[in-house]
Amino acid sequence: MNLSTHYSDWIEAGCDEAGRGCLAGPVVAGAVILKPGADYPELDDSKKLTEKKRNALREMIMQEALAYGIGIVTAEEIDEINILNASFLAMHRAIDQLKVRPEFLLIDGNRFKPYQGLKHVCIVGGDAKYQAIAAASILAKTTRDRMMEAYDAQFPMYHWKKNKGYPTPEHKQAIAEYGITELHRKSFNMAIQMRLEL
Is 193 among the domain residues? Predict the structure, then answer.
């Protein structure tokens, strides 16, 4: 899919997060500044790509991008500040890591907490519209997936290698049988119970 390569004439960073709707694990965000004039037609919303393709594009992004950053907010932090604020914080942390300071931020979604006075625009479905956001989406998802696969070795009964912490029937059944871990978002306890009753 040919996504737009540019939104403004300023140095722009695309930002997106992964893991917002999960019951366990961190929320992870990516921020990417692509090289001016570069076009990467293979970039697309990470959810539309195969795991193999995402991993290949991850390596390409890290090699080709003018700058990139990855921000992580733990389950414990999510419980302290809520998932919406945690998503904003993850994006802020990703932007903090950029070696080139952007002048403009492209944010996937409809809400964002301003970052250090930088201008920004929120774009619903932005990861399917702009290459920089798609690149950020890929970095966020691949990073988070790898973290959940590593956690799976520690807690195999929850099948995180397969479900990545999302509320699948298998994951909910494991919670019913074994309870929750320190990696589960305890502020989601009520939501977990509601899902178990469905």
Answer: no
Helices 169-178 and 189-197: crossing angle in degrees, nearest 10, is 110
Contact 132, 112 (CB under 8 A): no
**What is the residue range of 19's domain?**
12-145
* CB distance 166 to 43 below 8 Å: no
Number of folded domains in the chain? 1
- CATH code of the domain covering residue 63: 3.30.420.10
For residue range 55-114, what is the model confidence (pLDDT) as tens digits? Answer: 999 999 999 999 999 999 999 999 999 999 999 999 999 999 999 999 999 999 999 999
- What would the mean pLDDT of 120-140 be, rounded to a whole number? 96
157 in a structural domain = no
18 is a domain residue = yes
pLDDT of residue 94: 98
Q: What DSSP letter does each residue of 158-188 carry, written as one string?
A: G-HHHHTT---HHHHHHHHHH---TTB-GGG
Note the pLDDT of residue 189: 58
Nearest to 183 by CA among 159, 163, 165: 165
For the entire predicted model, the pTM comes to 0.92
In a domain, 41, yes or no: yes
Identify the residue whose tokens are 């978002």.
185
Phi, psi values for residue 164, rounded to 5°: 55, 20
